[in-house]
Specification:
Blueprint lengths: L2 H30 L5 E8 L11 H7 L3 E7 L4 E7 L13 H18 L3 E7 L3 E8 L2 H13 L9 H11 L5 E6 L8 H10 L1 E8 L11 E6 L4 E6 L3 H24 L3 E6 L4 H13 L2
Parallel strand pairs: 3-4, 3-6, 6-7, 7-10
Antiparallel strand pairs: 1-2, 4-5, 8-9
Length: about 290
Amino acid sequence: MEANELLKKVRKIDIKTRGLSQNIFAGEYHTAFKGRGMTFSEVREYQYGDDVRDIDWNVTARHNHPYVKVYEEERELTVMLLVDVSKSRLFGAIGEEKREMIAEIAATLAYSAITNNDKIGVIFFSDKIEKFIPPKKGKKHILLIIRELIDFTPESFGTDIGVALRYFTDALKKRCTTFLISDFIDTHDYSKQLQIACNKHDIIAIQVYDKRDTSLPDIGLMQMSDLETNTTRWVNTSSKKIRQIYSKWWYERQQAMMAILNKCRIDHTSIATDEDFVRSLMGLFKNRGVR
């Protein structure tokens, strides 16, 4: 992509996602993703209704009057984006391409993190680790992430979510809030790696799909290409049986994905490329906030 075109796209996503995170997501994000724990702030005189377990006995003895410890939530989080950059993200028959929506969602989450004074980092993955951007703060860091989201070119075409999760678990020692963003078109079994990762980190799964992924149109003989394996075949879409087989494949694949996510108790949402991702993310945040 030429420099001027890239700059225009960066500015466009920068303006759109910064506004979304500041005007819409700020409060919901803060409520949904809490800090790592509580840290001591100060002591004050005991008041009726205070928990007696919070009494600071050393200060109480000095003043001959009960004092309690006051704690504040540790708000700062480390947020990681695990972004699928496999070739299937280039598909877009209905709405925008999957990669465009993935970029907008990831940029919005990154701005939401920075707005709440959290660090943000990214792991780009295909069937291998393509790039690791360590967590940092700051506007320059956000713009670097947006530029990579738009213009990153992976070396490999396939998808292996398990590889990404294994690398992430090894690379990040402290607990992170992690968004796994993918179309989840993956033939590998990533359930074990996901279970290990979610025992250590707070993981949220976001599936971005095209509605044409879910079913075949009835348009006669059609050449279909697998972007990740670079194979093609002719399919007679006029055949009702073939269309039913394809729809069944998609349904069973989705059910398998949902079973893995539910078993690991991972919050998740699926967003089609012609849908408003804002509504889906807001629903996700609100559901987490009320728990």
